[in-house]
Design brief:
about 200 residues, NUDIX_hydrolase_dom, nucleus, U8 snoRNA-decapping enzyme, alpha+beta, globular, eight-stranded mixed beta sheet, about 25% helix
Length: about 200
């Protein structure tokens, strides 16, 4: 979100009735796999191709009538990713950040949840049967967490895609903070981190 300002959660929730809330989640799992038998995958990190052709995280607008931000996010995950995602135990402890957009008066709340690889595979398998598949969501993608020898293939090339709002910054911050990539690999490959 160009021009978005980062807020503490309590400040974001106190913005008042003129503001809408959106919640999105990065779902990830340890992945012991090897690409071409030699490049460690480390983690499977899910993003989705949205209806507008941009990459983003599953989620969307929530109503505080859902009971909580997390309940609204679970509802959104169920609609976009299917039944397996409805059982992802997202909690306030999974909250990472909030960003307020200057124009449309939307505050975006970001969560990250580690799953088992089996849980993540179940989400991927069930996603094509989700209510919003083919409508709001055109498909799931995994983020390549490696950089190929050419210095471009893998994560650097992936980051050249078009992302919605603050999704790219949220991804980079989560990759670094959750240590989903090798320490220093983002800066070693000249991937700019969020400010």
């Amino acid at each position: 979100m160009a021009g978005a300002r980062k807020l503490e959660l309590q400040d974001a929730l106190a913005l008042g009735p003129g503001w809408r809330h959106a919640c999105h989640a990065l779902l990830y799992a340890p992945d012991p796999g090897l690409l071409f038998g030699r490049i460690p995958l480390r983690y499977a990190v899910l993003m989705q191709m949205r209806f507008d052709g941009r990459l983003g995280f599953p989620g969307g607008l929530v109503n505080l009538q859902d009971g909580s931000l997390e309940a609204g996010l679970r509802r959104e995950l169920s609609e976009e990713l299917g039944e397996a995602a409805a059982h992802v135990p997202l909690e306030r402890a999974d909250y990472r950040s909030s960003h307020a957009a200057p124009g449309p008066r939307v505050v975006a709340h970001f969560y990250a949840k580690q799953l088992t690889l089996e849980q993540l595979l179940a989400v991927e398998k069930g996603a094509p049967r989700a209510k919003d598949h083919g409508l709001e969501v055109l498909g799931l993608v995994r983020v390549p967490l490696y950089t190929l020898r050419d210095g471009v293939g893998g994560l650097p090339a992936f980051l050249e895609n078009s992302f919605i709002g603050a999704a790219k910054e949220q991804l980079l911050e989560a990759l670094q903070d959750l240590e989903l990539v090798e320490p220093g690999s983002l800066t070693a490959h000249k991937i700019s981190l969020p400010h």
